[in-house]
Amino acid sequence: MTAPLLNNPVQRLLTMLTPDAPRKLIALAGVPGSGKSTLAARLAAEVKALAGPDALVAIGMDGFHLSQAALRRMPDPESAFAR
């Protein structure tokens, strides 16, 4: 039996968005280039289309594993540190 989130992820996320529900953090894990960011963006877009623009936020975690020195060398260090 598959987990409910995998059967219909958009509907499952919508059921979690009740007015009295506490904020939730959902993490996607996988190897680089496996589509985590793409999946998160698509799910967020679909949920926002149904529940409103502030219903869900997809936040990328690119760079969390890099040293501060590596982040400083990026084209936009301020953005890199913010992520």
Would you write up a description of this structure?
By secondary structure, this protein is mainly alpha-helical. The chain is 46% helix and 0% strand. It has helices at 4-7, 9-15, 36-51, 68-72, 77-82. Helix 2 (9-15) packs across helix 3 (36-51). The longest helix is centred in the middle third of the chain and has 16 residues, at 36-51. It is elongated, with a radius of gyration of 16 Å. The model has no long low-confidence stretch (mean pLDDT 85).
Produce a short descriptive summary.
By secondary structure, the protein is mostly helical. The chain is built from 5 helices and no strands. 4% of the residues are buried.
- The residue ranges in which pLDDT falls below 50 over 5 or more consecutive positions are none
The whole-number mean of residue pLDDT values reads: 85
Q: What is the beta-strand fraction?
A: under 5%
Task: Summarize the helix and strand pattern as letters.
Answer: HHHHH
What would you call the shape? elongated
Largest sheet: none
Count up the helices: 5
Tally the beta strands. 0
**Distance separating the two termini:** 36 Å
Q: Compute the CA-based radius of gyration.
A: 16 Å
Helix-strand makeup class: mainly alpha
Helix content: 40-55%
